[in-house]
Each structure stands twice: as structure tokens, then as C-alpha cells.
Amino acid sequence: MNAYNLIIALSCVIIFSHIFNFVSKRTKVPSVILLILLGIGIKLVMDYNDYNQDALIFSTLEVLGIVGLIMIVLEAAIDLELSKEKWPIIWKSFTVALLSLLVCAFAISFIINQVFHEDPIISLVYAVPLSIMSSAIVIPSVNGLFEDKKEFMIYESTFSDILGIMFFYFLIENVGAENTGTVVYSIIGNIVITIVVSIAISYALVMLFQRIVGDVKLFMLIAVLILLYAIGKQLHLSSLVIILVFGLLLNNTHLFFFGKLKAWLDAKMINGILKDLHLVTRESAFVVRTFFFVVFGTTIDFRALLDLEIVGVSLIIVAVFYASRFLLLKVFFLKKSILPEVFITPRGLITVLLFFSIPVELASETFNSDIILITILATSIIMTWGLIRYSNVEPPKEAEEVIAEALNQTGDSGEVSYFVSRMSEDAKAESESKAPDEVLGDSDTDGDEPEGQ
User: Fold this and answer.
1) How far apart, in whole angstroms, are the C-alpha atoms of residue 198 and residue 191?
2) How far, in whole angstroms, is CA 200 from its chain's centroid?
3) CA 308 vs CA 115, 285, 435: distances in Å
4) pTM for this entry
5) Choosing a second label site near 31 at 20 to 30 A (CA), which of 337, 402, 435, 442?
6) For residues 116 and 367, is the Cβ–Cβ distance under 8 A?
């Protein structure tokens, strides 16, 4: 393929991706599925013309996956606001992501061990990538949800990526550990070192880049972040934490720069960098995500769908995803609707990226990689159906809202049902019964001082 044909092909892919985004907003079908289908079409054309570049495709897929992961997490981090009001969503999403990861990883590990008779450790290594929710699919797919549901899904998918990657690399780096104490020490040490390094680097980057004069500096910032990520991976640190901490610190400078640190901060410059970085990360993540899933689509072989054993195992694994998700969401949102969140647990970029990162010494000779394809397609299709079916479901209303709407919809006759009228009277009586107590409390604190003082 000559250079001009390659340029035409790449340009057409980006144009199609923009069209897919428009179609996705209208139909609720995730653009990721459309990109994978486009990749499948390109694969058919390549096969028809006897054009085979498997080595190039897989190396390209790995690079795109790494850069895409960095951009997606950075994009999500600079959108997240830390505050007391957000704390319930933050801790719930973190806990759900952690428990879901652990439950799915050990359940899927057991399935792989029983079906393919694989070593328990190797089974767990293959199970972890399958247990991670893909923020690359979730974040662009939940824009149509209510704000609280959207924020929960963004937090959960981001935490799932970070925790899953940390779990995966901790696992493969400690396979040869002699005892549990060594593993625990390694994990705690890695987390502490990574967090300390991340905070120090984030402060330094914010202080540095707010003082750089010139218009062309955002891609330099991104290059520095990618460089730090790659160096961190070489040092066996959880590099994704660096990206997350930097994004959170940049978007929440009012929390991290306090006391005398405020004097070192140029708020106007930071706001300008943040605004431009929003645009750059959004566009960059879009481009990288586009090419990753198109390239991934070219690796798909639909002959796997004809193997009933592989399909059966894949569907059992998918059932584990949704069963565990339903139970966890019910526990944490007992009195609230969990639709469509219960259907949103897709597998994608991280699953594929980590699968390609499994060391040769831990590679399985019996595990069929087509299981990953089927789980990605199945979870994406189920998520699509859930978004189409339930994305417009209103959250349950409080009793006061129901009463107010009923009173406003009585029409010209002015008649209200006996039930609604009684509810209104009960609510009014309850508020009046509290009034004397409040007045008494005010009189105790604001009235005249007791005699004798």
C-alpha cells in the first residue's frame, strides 16, 4: 500500500468514526461496536486481496492500547470533581469496582481451571483481564444518562481500569514469591511508593507548566505524561495512578493547593491549561480509541462462534459478570433504581491490552483466546440493549414531588383524589408538629438568659 492510499484509508476511518458517534447518539448503539464492525469489514477486504500483516497489526494494537489508556484515564480524571457532595458516589463506585473485580476474577479463574484444567495461578492471570470493565467503552456511552448515574459509571469504570491493571501486574510480578508476606510487602510498598511519587510529580508538573511561556505546550505535557507512564512501567510501578493523580490535582487545585501553596498557583493560567487540555485529551482519546477498535476488529475470526464449547464457556463467564453486578448494585443502591447500570459492564480495551501483556512463561496452551472476543461482543450488545431500553427511565420520585405534581394537574375542576388530599394533609400536619419543637429549641438558645446569671 502506497503512502497516499494509506492516508486516504486513515482519513476515511476518522470520518466514519465521527459518523458513528452521530449514529450512536440517535440509536444508543455504542460507537465501539460500529468501529469493530468497520475493522471486520477491513479485514475481509484485506483477506480478499491477500494482504496479511499480522505482526504489524498486533504491535500497532499494543501501542494504541497503551496511549489510548493514558488519554482515556486523563480525560476522565480532569472531568472528576472532588467534594463532600461527591464523596458518596466516589466511595460507592470504588467499592463496587473493587468487589466486582475480585469476585469476577476468582469466579472466572475457577471456571478456567475446571474447563481447561489449567494451573490455578495461570487461570487467575487470564481471569483478571476478563474481570475489568472498559472505561474506553463506558465513558463515551453514558452521556445520555442522568448526571448521578453518569458520574457513578465514569468513576466505577475508571477505578475498575486502575485496580484491574494494578492487580494484573502485581500478580505476574509476584508469581515466584516464596511466601504470602513477601507478596503483601511488595503490594503495599508498590502502592505507597506510587502514590508518593504521583503526588510529587503532579505538583511539580502543575508548577512547571503554568510558568512555561508559549502557545505550543499541551502536547509536550501529554508527551511528559506518556514518558512518565512508560518509565513507571519499566520500574514496575502502577503508572496509571500517576495519570489519575495528575488529572485530579489539576482539576481540583482548590483542594490540593491550600495555605501558603495558594500563593504559588496562577489560577488564571491553570484554568486556561485545563480548558485546552479538555479539548486535546477528548480529541486525542477519540482518535486513539477509533484506531484501536478498528485494528482490533481486523483481528476477529468469527469461526469461534461455531465452537459450541467456547461459546458456552464465554456465556457462563458473561453470566458471572451480570450476576455479581446485580447483587453488588442492589446492596449499595437498595432503594434506588439500578437500571440501566446493571447492564453496563462491557469488556474492551484493557482486556485486550492485558491479554497481550501476559508473559510467555505464564501463557496457557489450553485457553482459547476467542473467549475474549465473545465476551467483548456479548457485553457490548447487552449494554447496547440496556441503554436503548432503560436510558430514559426516570428515577423514583419522592412523596412530596408526587403530591405536588398531583395538585398541579387537577385541571379546571380543582378536584383532587381523596388519597392525594390525605397525603398532602399528613405531610402538612407532620411539618406543623415539628414547628413547636423548633421554636422551643430557638427559645432555649436565643431567648433571655436564665435567672440568677
Assistant:
1) 10
2) 25
3) 13, 36, 69
4) 0.74
5) 337
6) yes
